[in-house]
């Protein structure tokens, strides 16, 4: 058994421990212990992977293992990681760990909430470690299904509508995915479901690729909030509880970009080259439309949700540019945005828990009342708009430089249009920071509010450290990702 299986076994043990827990302290203890083990495992995996590459190990995937579990369709539990998987597992572990502390005081039904939260994280981990198409799809569904209950039961606002809309749209995307996956399996010779084995054969006719590429790319693109399939995202984010928003925007949406690159583009390379221009137009719209939409929102969660549409659109945009630099930037953006948006949603949830409003028209002077949370919000905002020294700058500059490497007019015009999102992002971030944090406190009730508690400080400090750490020391992540991007791009181009 590969050590990677621990990423599924530990959450399974957490589910058992939560089910047996009799008190709130036991529930919290199980979550902290499990999340800490997952974080430690992902850190060890990252160090191990870097050491293996430094020692000259050039295998495309490390720690591979395969166990057949449905031979008639050649379905196997196959696992393995490359640089992209490693950083995504690290991101997932950080979000689960900080999300645990962000949900420390959640009421009611705390035990049930953490059960569904852990099941969601199980699907995320399983998706990133698997190399078998059907098993990946199975974990993908495990990650999506708990969202309905997490939003519908523990959410706020129009939560039933948001939960149903999210579920229906993502299930629609899943229907497209299963058609595409079965098409790839059948037309590649129906001998294996392993992603790397199918890519190595590269025997799917171009005409067939053109049929199934849109199924796969749109299926994953729905989760990546690609225009015009993004409408579930703002409603889902706005209604979800804090830690679910963190995991949803920070990790779950990254499954979309990961799947588009690992499955759609890698396994259907000829169609990717011929049809990329269509999706490049849609993702360019996503980047600019999401940023403009954030400018006119008054709800803090909706602002961050539309910001996520813009930033996740930038991931797909960079992947479709198909240069090594842009694709490396896309994965860096997945990592950076996951940390930034988790920090944003954590802070918004903490502010809402005190003020009972997310409407920026009724928030002011928070810097005087809760300086820790306010400073955290400023840092998150500066990272989001791409200030040098934070992760957002590294990711976005890598994307735009890599995208501009394409010498034709079409790609360069799309790049210039996408670059305008930097200015638009600065507009809505600075507007919100100035409105809610500075000025006089007009609501006398706010003067009675308290600053962050110890559990909230743990979550915020960890995320700020990661955002700043990636911004100041990005080379290790860039090298790990670039080594993994190379073989995939070689197959596409």
Topology:
Elements: H1 6-20, H2 24-54, E1 62-70, E2 75-81, H3 83-102, H4 110-129, H5 133-154, H6 159-187, H7 195-201, H8 206-223, H9 232-239, H10 242-252, H11 254-267, H12 269-295, H13 300-321, H14 324-355, H15 366-369, H16 371-384, H17 391-403, H18 409-437, H19 454-472, H20 475-492
Antiparallel strand pairs: 1-2
- Mean pLDDT across all amino acids: 89
Beta-strand percentage? Answer: under 5%
What is the alpha-carbon Rg in Å? 21 Å
- Which stretches of 5+ consecutive residues score pLDDT under 50? none
- The level of helicity is over 70%
> H/E element string?
HHEEHHHHHHHHHHHHHHHHHH
Kindly, what is the distance between the CA atoms of the first and last residues, rounded to a whole number of angstroms?
34 Å
Number of helices: 20
Largest sheet strand order: 1-2
Main sheet attributes: strand count, strand direction, barrel closure: 2 strands, antiparallel
What structural category arises from helix and sheet content? Answer: mainly alpha
In total, how many beta strands?
A: 2
Q: Count up the domains.
A: 1
Shape: globular
Q: What would you say this structure looks like, in words?
A:
By secondary structure, this protein is mainly alpha-helical. The chain has one domain. The chain has 20 helices and two strands. The two termini are 34 Å apart.
Task: Give a quick set of tags describing it.
NADH_Q_OxRdtase_chainM/4; mainly alpha; 493 residues; 20 helices; two-stranded antiparallel sheet; single chain; transmembrane helix; transmembrane; NADH_UbQ_OxRdtase; ND/Mrp_TM
